Amino acid sequence: MHPTRAIIHLGNLAHNIEEIRRLVGAHRRICVPVKADAYGHGAIRIARELLAEGVSHLAVATVSEAAALRAADITAPILLLGLVIPEEYPLLVQTGCEAFVADKDQIAGLALQAKQMNTSLAVHLKIDTGMGRIGCVPQEAPSLARYILDSGLSLAGVATHLPVADSAKPQDIDFTHAQIKRFTDAVTSIRDAGIDPGIVHAANSGGILQYPESWLDMVRPGIIVYGYPSDPSSLTGHTIELKPVMKLETRVVHMKKVQKGTSISYGRTWTAERDTVIATLPVGYGDGLARSLSNRLTVRIAETDYPIVGRICMDQCMIDVGPEPAVRRWDTAVIFGPGHGADALARMIDTIPYEITCSIAPRVPRVYVTE
To answer: Which of 131, 285, 341, 345 has a Cα at 20 to 30 A from 96?
Structure first.
């Protein structure tokens, strides 16, 4: 087993799903994104665990991600969140994904492909209420919903996305409330046209935590499923306890004494200010440990934090363990995980925990534990 490993705590995953269900209600459907290899946690294993926990839908960003789930005999409904090019239509129809659609061209193309393959296809109409990414304008929703049905496709749902639902800024709160109103008005207009909108869904992680009016028929929790942010509170006074699912750990593989004035790693960006001991860890940016964390990050060994010194290399990094270290060769060093979260790393380099976990390279083994 490689000394650098991503430990995936399945018990924490189950706990997070239960916390989400406790908040939004047991009757409400839950759709969890397992795109980007389940945010770096391993899509197939995580998908199976989520379904065992009662999640109703999975979501992916690409047709190939959906095909990998189907190849693993996962038969649950899969939402395809991203748009596809015509060359991907046959595989999309084959997988039976419920694709997001937003315009007549795509609707017509998918309908033709399904007809040619002598099968049916369900889609979700995406309405752009302020994200500005994909989706129709709200005023087009009734006519596009009718076009979906007239084309021979089935309308499985109607959706939107909330880009600032996780923000506490007053202007963002106002923006999100306005989004939800635009969306629900559009859904009403679909119903007024005599069309069943199917599953109505809008709430991402931020929406779940802060906007109960966005919960509707189904919620789509992303990063909170994987344990971040930790212990957030909603504006309505609800609380939810989250536990990070991934722990990135490695082992001390080398130790040596260095004298004051010794420089460490590429570029000589760190120089010892005292005689000390440098320990080498076999993890680097090739494993997903961002080079921008050089001379900033600390790693945890036996409840003590030690600073990374010098530039992080592709496959290794170094830590200063002091002149009389308690650290020993082969000790386990935790880069991040429960109690030492990826959110702290994210803040150091002005990013989000999603990017930290998604960046963990495929060469790092995922080890699944149930406790």
So the answer is: 131
